[in-house]
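Consider today's protein:

***
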Amino acid sequence: MASGESLDVLKTASSTEWLLEAGEVQILGRSISSREDKLISLAPHLEHVYVPDADWSQIAMQLQTKVDGVQCSWLDNACTIKAE
């Protein structure tokens, strides 16, 4: 790690799985949480982020309206980022 860089360490919900507990989930500064706590599964070896159906529409709308190059398809339940 380069001098001046920081390392964030996150405590997982389990000693055997890459799960994070989340009471509130935000994307681009807007809360998308339901009243339920969430378990977020980290899978750094995958190129995709899987989102529960209950949260997908809110996340897709925020991404598509606030991030340049993002195109979302509600038919396919998928968002892609166009490379420049």
